[in-house]
């Protein structure tokens, strides 16, 4: 229905867009497009050798020009490579312009302004819409992966609407509660990247070093990501519609042993090896062995039951236009994303509206608004719980009983424990999260005097979301008898409704002064900003509903109902300034300062000053290099600066008593009680990050090859963290300033673009690496599998080392005394300190907490109307400590993976896996060892896209200016040694993790 | 120029609201203006009590505390704990890195002590009249004594702190000896006794509560004469007696105004609840599972052991037994609200590993349970039967089995709903000691006392290694295990705390 409506809209608008086209014989006409097939308005078209004869392309990228049949046309546009095309008697010329690798005149967005790219002195990378939209994604944050050196993007999960994307600029900067998330600025004020539709994004810029980020002061310690959305066209009316459908399935999936007889026999074997009694009697196993009725005695693969192939659809409609100094764009998007895991779905609706209007020569105002409605459905305990519940099932029964009633199975296996029925959960216990989000701002620019402009921008972000978590009563039945067994485990039955809202108003006002005195150019900026955030939540619960169809609170009785609600707020006030100076565009200097006050600190420690300085030398402009034929540009940069971090809880310095410690002091009512539970340090102050960065930008061979490289030292000190206080104080630790962490690293990006006749191609490589070190911490802490200790990377793995598998009793006898009593087939641990016994002091450091490096390759090629791009992404040296379901056999009775068929037995002594066991078995499960440390290095074809731009001539009659169809694939190939599941995840822990999706996507875009 | 003025005006406006950056918590009480009224005092007093029921970091109940005191029986010879740190202790061994209860027992009791210290240091600021203040203080002195006694029975000597600690806390505190901690506990109890009301117990601490704790501390430290005298004070006070109903001691409404209960961790529907019914009773959980040794410890109806009694029938082992057996545990074949057949059949219960289930403390009217089942059984911490058996045990040590010893034990055995025959006359002191220990085991099974009884009798090292876990492996109990280790994290970070021996 929705599609039909969209089509109708298009048809209605079509007639408006039709205009005639005639070509007198003396005239050459044609269309100019970019490499993606988008028409390019405003391209200068001149006759070579007679530059005075010229015109510009119109909004449809079309031109007409008088030229001799033997002449040559020159096409030029800022940021694109100039093209010279001989007319050679043709009447129509279709031209495609390629972008230059480093467009020298590119202006890029920086904090509170813009800057010519060549004049940048800080470490800044940017990526534009064309590059970003090669991937077909539902969450814009994932598009950034591998595109920007220095930015690490990890997509933790394939769960729709909840991908858990983490963005890290130059590694983990701190271990404080302040967090590692970068600040995201959308159209000038803090916002949310995920809420946007990818098609609405114009460019994304990352400010990596302190020099470029310090103008954002207190919120910039983890880097800043600047996002701008597309602005309207200058003239006319343009309509664009795009659609794609992705056939989506999990990237990698475990292969389990799903033969019922094999499962039970292996389980018995594992139990016996683990010192427990066998669970399955031979008579029960024989029922399956001899069964002819495979409905009643099946071999079920529960992963096939839980996972499916789904169809993800994206619609996007954009109307953009302008007239007389006013232009606008409206983008509407709809993403419909059913999960590959049963029970998950997400629908995202976006509306982006941007308007700019020149009131008069001096005054411009505008508005940017983004509205997002997101409707997410998910089983209440999330993807990991569903996944492990499915893994925990045995193959001897299915999700519904075999008697044809459609009743859910409670358990078809009375002998061991299994988790709850995940299908019954997915089909009945879906929670919904409906979120309404608005980010908006209004701006006013005034040219006060020549060179002096005043900009004020204010807006607010508003978020409201309602989570409804209804847990009905679902009866379950015995697999064999069909009798009622017990109700489904849904947690606390009933309905919990939670409303959250937050409002975040923000305003800044600033003056910019630009002046050139001879060879000296100055630019001065000064401004002030205020922001305030308040979050409120309210929840209610009722228990006993008359049936499962009524799911509003009032439908249930008040008995046992509960309510809760809370709120918090913070505010920040800032003053900032910047000075840019350059001498003949050759010697560049920039200074920034920000002075921030936060409500999170006490009055006298509230304010923090964050300065930065940077300088650049464009050697390429020096006379001794300027004439060089091969060198296009060469720039050296260096910067130093400080940034602050304040995201540490809202009231960390205040002495407060916790309410809610109630007790029935008499026999009738609860009396309220309070406790002092925490120590506070009233004198805490800003956590500070200091970054020193040197870099070089290099372009040769007429910009065909460009290189950007940076080395940095990012050091965070006065880290805000929980103090290490002894337990006998009886009070939880205060937040204090203590500790230092350092990341030293380098990164580079190389791009090469060339064109041979009609064939153009480009190669890009991004690479980044860093070394994390905990410089100052305090007493070392060991957290089960990792150690926090000065001089080594944060949370370096600290585990026992496995040297092999015990082959015989003799070997056990002659080996260091193990912690538990091993048998042949069990793991043998290394006696690190050679004292003849294995104990806690034999744990040792193992690397892999941070990747050795991340890298990516971009390849693209275009020939006539075809274009192809491929994007590879890889991580090397990252390890995860993972345990449990899917990795260890029989965790909650989870069937082992097929690799366990080749596990150690007295007859198979060369095996790499130990004797099959039941998770929890001391000699294997109980010591955290590198047996569970899995190398998650991977290299994957993240994306490939093949597109075709339909010839303009074929489209004209329909009034279509451009039509593109394409195929795109995501995560099609993965090379990794990681066992079974997706190696791309954000951390260790439970091995089960919703894998990312493999997507085969088909789509098209039409422009009128 | 005009525009510059606007700019300055706008920036000026932003700078003027001088309290823009002052933000206070919206749902918490500020510590700076507390202790102004009797209401404040009551809030703080209630907070100190609340930790009896909800000792944890997040206001829920940790294993081994409050309604989950029963977990302690999981590491005694009475039961097997299916999950958590108690399970690690039972299946592996007790170490400083075990986590769970090893950390909680330390941290949570100190948390409670800190809140008591905060109360005692500040209550005078409220300027209430002297008698009122004394009554409030007495309750807190008692609670502080109780929390220290918990530490003492677990760790032996510990660090003693009696004032609210701040950031400038001492960096070189040493642990006191066990005797010093005991003296501190007794001193607080004696201070409390000066002002506690001599009333029956209905939730607030009364004189008998303090005397009961005092008797227990003295008994645990083998100060027999004083222990017997203290217990006698309660017996002679006449305000408490053995309740007729055994089952009613452990569920409501039987617990309300029960004449036997002297001290308990309390709960109240609908908002202060525990989850004991589903955690112990639901076939999805069955956290604590009694073991056969406990079932076999119950006598036959004739007062004889199952190895001696003619009433014992191996084919029907649970007939003709002490009435407390079927009120304490589910045995195979008992009617049961879970499972297809309506009876408890451990062979077809994937979670059951021992063949038995907890029944004591379960409100069977709530079965079948699920996560929405709310329970409000109080967990009894001291009851009159314990006073009698403590008296008997102490008096027997002082003067041998005199008539008052027989009377005390027989009063417990003769409970109206139990009616076990009186002890036969003419027992020696040693025989009486064994009979009392036997009586304690069956009377207080699953009440969190057995493990500490084994420790103080020094029998743990022989009893526990004989216990066979499901799967066939014997438990471990080393000599060092007579006290708990301090949590490894505490010893690592607070260097002046000396770890207990051999850990």
Q: How much helical structure, as a percent, in the residues of chain B?
A: 40-55%
| Number of E strands of chain B | 7
Provide the CATH architecture of the domain at 36-66 and 93-241 and 483-493 in chain B.
Alpha Horseshoe
Mean pLDDT of chain A: 87
First and last CA, distance of chain A: 23 Å
| Helix and strand sequence of chain B | HEHHEHHHHHHEHEHHEEEHHHHHH
Task: State the total count of DSSP E strands of chain A.
Answer: 54
Greatest interface by residues involved: A-B, 94 and 94 residues
Main β-sheet description of chain A: 22 strands, antiparallel, barrel
State the oligomer: heterodimer
Notes on the structure:
The complex is a heterodimer of chains A (1008) and B (503). Chain A is mainly beta and 1008 residues long. Chain A is built from 13 helices and 54 strands. In chain A, α5 runs antiparallel to α6. The model of chain A is unreliable at 1-25 (pLDDT under 50). Helix content of chain B is 43%, strand content 4%. Chain B is globular, with a radius of gyration of 26 Å. In chain B, α6 (130-155) packs parallel to α8 and α13 runs antiparallel to α15 (429-443). Chain B has helices at residues 2-16, 38-53, 71-74, 84-91, 101-122, 130-155, 178-195, 207-220, 224-237, 276-281, 292-297, 323-328, 384-399, 403-413, 429-443, 450-456, 460-463, 488-493, and strands at residues 29-30, 79-81, 261-265, 288-290, 329-330, 357-358, 379-383. With 503 residues, chain B is mainly alpha-helical. In chain B, the strands form three sheets. A two-stranded antiparallel sheet of chain B has the order 2-4. A two-stranded antiparallel ribbon of chain B has the order 3-7. Chain B has a domain at 36-66 and 93-241 and 483-493: Alpha Horseshoe (Serine Threonine Protein Phosphatase 5, Tetratricopeptide repeat), CATH 1.25.40. In chain B, 50% of the residues are buried. Classes of the chains: A mainly beta (1008), B mainly alpha (503). Chains A and B meet through β26, β27, β28, β29 and β33 of A and α1, β1, α2, α5 and α18 of B.
């Amino acid at each position: 229905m929705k599609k039909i409506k969209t089509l109708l809209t298009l048809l209605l608008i079509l007639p408006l867009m039709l205009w005639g086209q005639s070509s007198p014989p003396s005239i050459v006409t044609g269309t100019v497009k970019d490499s993606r097939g988008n028409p390019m308005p405003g391209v200068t078209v001149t006759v070579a050798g007679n530059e005075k004869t010229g015109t510009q392309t119109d909004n449809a990228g079309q031109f007409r020009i008088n030229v001799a049949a033997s002449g040559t046309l020159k096409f030029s546009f800022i940021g694109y490579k100039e093209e010279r095309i001989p007319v050679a008697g043709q009447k129509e010329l279709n031209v495609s312009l390629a972008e230059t690798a480093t467009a020298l005149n590119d202006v890029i967005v920086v904090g509170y302004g813009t800057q010519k790219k060549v004049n940048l002195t800080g470490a800044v990378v940017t990526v534009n819409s064309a590059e970003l939209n090669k991937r077909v994604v539902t969450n814009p944050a994932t598009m950034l992966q591998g595109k920007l050196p220095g930015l690490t993007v990890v997509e933790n999960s394939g769960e729709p609407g909840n991908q858990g994307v983490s963005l890290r600029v130059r590694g983990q900067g701190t271990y404080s509660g302040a967090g590692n998330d970068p600040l995201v600025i959308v159209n000038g004020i803090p916002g949310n990247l995920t809420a946007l539709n990818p098609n609405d994004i114009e460019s994304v810029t990352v400010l990596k070093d302190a020099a470029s980020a310090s103008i954002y002061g207190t919120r910039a310690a983890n880097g800043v990501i600047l996002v701008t959305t597309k602005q309207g066209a200058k003239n006319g009316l343009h309509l664009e519609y795009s659609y794609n459908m992705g056939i989506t399935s999990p990237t990698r999936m475990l292969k389990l042993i799903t033969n019922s007889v094999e499962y039970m026999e292996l389980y018995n074997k594992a139990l016996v090896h683990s010192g427990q009694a066998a669970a399955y009697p031979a008579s029960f196993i024989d029922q399956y062995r001899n069964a002819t009725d495979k409905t009643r005695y099946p071999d079920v693969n529960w992963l096939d039951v839980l996972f499916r192939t789904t169809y993800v659809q994206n619609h996007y409609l954009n109307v953009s236009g302008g007239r007389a100094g006013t232009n606008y764009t409206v983008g509407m998007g709809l993403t419909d994303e059913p999960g590959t895991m049963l029970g998950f779905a997400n629908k995202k609706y976006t509306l982006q509206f941007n308007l700019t209007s020149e009131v008069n020569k001096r005054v411009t105002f505008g508005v940017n608004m983004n509205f997002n409605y997101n409707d997410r459905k998910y089983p209440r305990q999330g993807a990991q719980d569903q996944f492990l519940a499915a893994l925990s099932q045995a193959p001897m029964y299915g999700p519904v009983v075999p008697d044809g009633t459609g009743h859910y199975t409670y358990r078809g296996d009375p002998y061991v424990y299994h988790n709850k029925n995940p299908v019954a959960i997915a089909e009945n216990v879906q929670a919904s999260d409906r979120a309404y989000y608005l980010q908006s701002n209004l701006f006013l620019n005034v040219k006060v005097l020549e060179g002096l402009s005043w900009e004020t921008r204010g807006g607010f972000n508003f978020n409201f979301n309602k989570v409804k978590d209804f847990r009905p009563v679902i009866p379950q039945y015995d697999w064999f008898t069909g009798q009622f067994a017990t109700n489904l485990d849904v947690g606390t039955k009933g309905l919990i409704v939670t409303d959250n809202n937050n409002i975040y108003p923000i305003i800044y006002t600033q003056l910019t002064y630009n002046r050139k005195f001879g060879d000296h150019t100055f630019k001065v900026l000064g401004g002030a900003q205020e922001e305030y955030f308040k979050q409120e939540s309210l929840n209610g619960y009722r228990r006993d509903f008359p049936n499962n169809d009524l799911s509003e609170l009032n439908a249930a009785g008040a008995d046992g109902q509960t309510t809760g609600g809370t709120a918090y707020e913070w505010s920040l006030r800032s003053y900032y300034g910047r000075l840019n100076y350059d001498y003949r565009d050759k010697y560049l200097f920039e200074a920034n300062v920000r002075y921030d006050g936060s409500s999170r600190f006490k009055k006298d420690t509230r304010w923090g000053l964050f300065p930065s300085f940077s300088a650049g030398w464009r050697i390429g402009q020096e006379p001794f290099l300027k004439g060089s034929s091969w060198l296009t540009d060469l720039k050296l940069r260096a910067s130093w600066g400080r940034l602050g971090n304040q995201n540490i809880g809202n009231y960390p310095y205040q002495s407060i008593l916790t309410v809610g410690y109630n007790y029935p002091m008499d026999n009738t009512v609860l009396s309220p009680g309070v406790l002092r539970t925490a120590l506070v340090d009233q004198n805490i102050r800003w956590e500070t990050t200091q970054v020193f960065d040197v870099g070089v930008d290099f372009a040769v061979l007429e910009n065909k090859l460009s290189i950007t490289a940076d080395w940095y030292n990012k050091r965070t000190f006065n880290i805000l963290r929980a103090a290490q206080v002894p337990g006998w104080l009886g009070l939880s630790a205060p937040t204090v300033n203590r500790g230092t962490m350092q990341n030293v690293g380098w990164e580079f990006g190389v791009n090469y673009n060339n064109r041979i006749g009609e064939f153009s191609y480009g190669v890009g490589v991004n690479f980044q690496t860093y070394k994390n070190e905990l410089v100052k911490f305090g007493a070392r802490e060991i957290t089960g599998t990792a150690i926090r200790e000065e001089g080594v990377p944060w949370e370096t793995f600290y585990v026992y080392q496995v040297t092999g598998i015990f082959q015989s009793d003799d070997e056990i006898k002659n080996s260091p005394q193990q912690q538990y009593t091993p048998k042949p087939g069990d793991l043998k641990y290394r006696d690190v300190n050679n004292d003849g016994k294995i104990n806690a002091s034999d744990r040792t450091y193992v690397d892999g907490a941070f990747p050795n490096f991340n890298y990516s390759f971009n390849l693209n090629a275009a020939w006539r109307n075809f274009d192809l791009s491929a994007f590879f992404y890889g991580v090397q040296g990252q390890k995860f400590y993972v345990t449990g379901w899917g990795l260890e056999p029989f965790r909650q009775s989870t069937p082992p993976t097929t690799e366990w068929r080749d596990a150690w037995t007295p007859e198979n002594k060369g095996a790499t896996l130990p004797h099959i066991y039941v998770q929890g078995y001391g000699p294997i499960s109980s010591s955290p060892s590198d047996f569970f440390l899995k190398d998650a290095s991977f290299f994957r074809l993240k994306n490939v896209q093949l597109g075709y731009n339909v010839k303009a001539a074929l489209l004209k009659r329909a009034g279509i200016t451009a039509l593109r169809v394409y195929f795109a694939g995501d995560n099609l190939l993965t090379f990794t040694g990681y066992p079974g599941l997706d190696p791309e995840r954000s951390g260790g822990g439970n091995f089960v993790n919703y894998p990312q999706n493999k997507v085969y996507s088909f789509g098209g875009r039409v422009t009128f | 120029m005009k525009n510059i003025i606007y700019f300055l005006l706008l920036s000026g406006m932003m700078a003027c609201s001088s309290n823009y950056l002052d933000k206070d918590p919206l749902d918490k009480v500020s510590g700076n203006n507390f202790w102004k009224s009797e209401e404040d005092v009551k809030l703080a007093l209630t907070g100190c009590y609340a930790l009896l029921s909800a000792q944890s970091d997040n206001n829920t109940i940790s294993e081994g505390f409050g309604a989950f005191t029963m977990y302690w029986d999981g590491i005694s010879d009475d039961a097997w704990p299916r999950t958590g740190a108690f399970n690690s202790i039972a299946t592996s061994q007790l170490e400083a890195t075990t986590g769970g209860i090893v950390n909680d027992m330390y941290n949570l009791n100190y948390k409670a002590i800190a809140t008591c210290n905060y109360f005692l240091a500040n209550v005078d600021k409220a300027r209430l009249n002297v008698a009122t203040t004394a009554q409030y203080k007495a309750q807190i002195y008692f609670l502080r004594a109780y929390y220290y006694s918990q530490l003492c029975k677990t760790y032996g000597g510990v660090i003693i702190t009696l004032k609210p600690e701040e950031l400038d806390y001492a960096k070189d505190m040493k642990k006191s000896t066990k005797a010093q901690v005991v003296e501190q506990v007794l001193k607080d109890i004696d201070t409390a006794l000066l002002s506690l009301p001599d009333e029956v117990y209905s939730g607030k601490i009364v004189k008998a509560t303090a005397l009961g704790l005092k008797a227990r501390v003295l008994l645990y430290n083998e100060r027999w004469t004083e222990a017997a005298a203290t217990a006698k004070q309660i017996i002679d006070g006449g305000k408490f007696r053995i309740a007729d109903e055994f089952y009613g001691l452990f569920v409501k409404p039987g617990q309300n105004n029960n004449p036997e209960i002297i001290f308990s961790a309390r709960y109240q529907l609908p908002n202060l609840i525990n989850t004991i019914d589903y955690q112990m009773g639901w076939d999805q959980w069955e956290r604590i599972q009694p073991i056969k040794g406990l079932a076999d410890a119950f006598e036959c109806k004739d007062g004889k052991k199952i190895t001696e009694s003619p009433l014992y029938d191996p084919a029907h082992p649970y007939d003709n037994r002490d009435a407390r057996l079927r009120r304490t545990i589910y045995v195979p074949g008992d009617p049961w609200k879970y499972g297809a057949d309506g009876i408890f059949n451990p062979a077809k219960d994937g979670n059951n590993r021992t063949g038995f289930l907890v029944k004591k403390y379960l409100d069977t009217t709530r079965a079948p349970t699920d996560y929405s089942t709310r329970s409000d059984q109080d967990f009894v911490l001291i009851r009159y039967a314990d006073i009698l058996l403590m008296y008997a045990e102490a008096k027997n040590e002082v003067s041998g089995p005199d008539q008052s010893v027989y009377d005390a034990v027989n009063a417990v055995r003769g409970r109206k709903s139990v009616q076990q025959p009186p002890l036969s006359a003419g027992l020696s002191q040693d025989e009486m000691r064994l009979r009392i220990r036997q009586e304690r085991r069956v009377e207080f099974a699953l009440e969190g006392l057995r493990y500490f009884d084994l420790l103080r009798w020094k029998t743990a090292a022989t009893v526990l290694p004989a216990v066979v876990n499901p799967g066939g492996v014997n438990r471990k109990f080393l000599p060092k295990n007579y006290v708990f280790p301090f949590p490894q994290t505490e010893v690592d970070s607070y260097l002046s705390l000396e770890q207990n021996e051999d850990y």
